[in-house]
Every structure is written in C-alpha cells, then in structure tokens.
Model the fold of this input.
Amino acid sequence: MGNLFKYCASILVVCTSLAYSQVGIASVTWVGQATYPSSTTTGTFDAYNFGGGIALIDIDSLDGTFNGYFQTYVSQHELAGSGVNVSNLMTSGSGIGFELTMAATFSGTSSLAANQNVDFAITAGTAGLYFDDSPDYSFASDSGFNDGVKLLEGSVTSGTGSIIQPIGVGVSQLSLNFSGLLGYIAAGVYDPDTVSGGDVVFSLITDTSVVSSSVIDSVADGNNTVLGHSATPPSAFLVGTDGGMTLSAVPVPAAFWLFGSAAIGLVTMGRNRKI
Done:
C-alpha cells in the first residue's frame, strides 16, 4: 500500500454542488449582490473564483480511517465567467481591505479492495466561507483561513470515493463524492436572499517531478500543516488546488450539499521530499 501513496494522483478534479434537499424542487443559478460586514457592496455576480489553495489527504491504513483538510481564498467575483471588480478585496493575505477564505474538513473509513484500490466511506465534515476585514491568511504558517465572520457553512454527512491503483508506471486516479446540509447563511449579506449553495470545481495537483505547486512548497517549507494537521508521510500527502464556486438559489432557504469529483489519471513520479 506504500507505493500507492508514493505514486499518488497528480491531478484530480473535485466538482461540488449544493442543491435543495427536497425532491422535485430544482436549484437555479443565483445572480445578485452581496453587502459584506465592512459595508462593501459588490456589483452583480454569480460566482466566486478561488486562487491557489491547498488540501491534505491523510489515510491511516492501520485502523482503516482517513481525514481530509482543505483551505483557499477568493481571488475574484464573477458574472457569467467575467470578472467583477470589488474594491478592497485583498488576495495576498495582507493589505488594507478585506479577504474571503474557505476551509473544509471531512473524514470517514477506508479499506483496501481486492483489486488494490482504496475505497472510502465519508461520514462527517464541515465546510465554510469566511469574511475578514484584517487580511492575514498564510499557507506557510497555516493560519487565517477559518477566522473572521462566517458567511456560509455546511455539514458533511455522507459520501464515497476511491484511489485507483496505478495503471502503468506512476498513473493513478482519485475520486471523492460527499454530501451534507447547508446549515448557515449569514443574514443580510446576499441580495436577493435566496442563496442556497454553489457548484465548486477544484483542480488538485500533487507536488511531483512533473508538476510543482508554489502553494505546496510554501506549506511544506513552512509549518507543513493544513488546518493544524501535519502532512506526515507515507500516509499523508499535499495537493495544490484551483477552482471556483457558482452560487445557486432555490425557492426556500433550506439546502443540501452534494460534493462530487471527476477523476483524471495522469503520469506522476513522486519524489522524496517533505510533504
């Protein structure tokens, strides 16, 4: 099983959607404005674009469990794929203005299948979007991603996934699907107040001899942690992320999170370094 983590997935795409939990009521794309706690009012937008982020996947083969940790920041608001200027949105973790960050954790059980794949059953977790009028996020020191004012939060309740053993030298796949309930939306922020969730797409990239991520390097050369959890080999590995969140709306505020992934198998040659 050690080789599985030595040659872990180079790129995987995680698609996340939040849809209404009652059968028969479909969500639609939310379009509107936001007034953040700093009294900053955005232009009309329908999506958040994320900058480079980080995820840590830690699989304990001894007791058959795994944990995942993820954090990133909002780099831009968008409307129909085009950027929307929002004054004082800081994207560097410093400056005079405000920042928007996201943090998520999830956990469950893992097992080695007969075909040497690793199967997951996700049982718990949380995800949240935060506003902070004192920009301070830092990948190196693993801080500033889940502080400030909470705008959206959901609870992960269930899900499945797998890591597919390499097919040929260094080729592997990883997929995850998990769901939960969106239990909190900050009052007075979104107008109209029909936000129920979002569709999220992330590209996750391991630090390999083929592809290197500056965010991964920053974490590995810093505290080497994500949300306080250490990336300790051989079970734990870091992946860099990029993506965005398209907001959705439903006739009533209750919402259901549905996280999924489209796995992509690519050539990866894991190199020995601190991850």
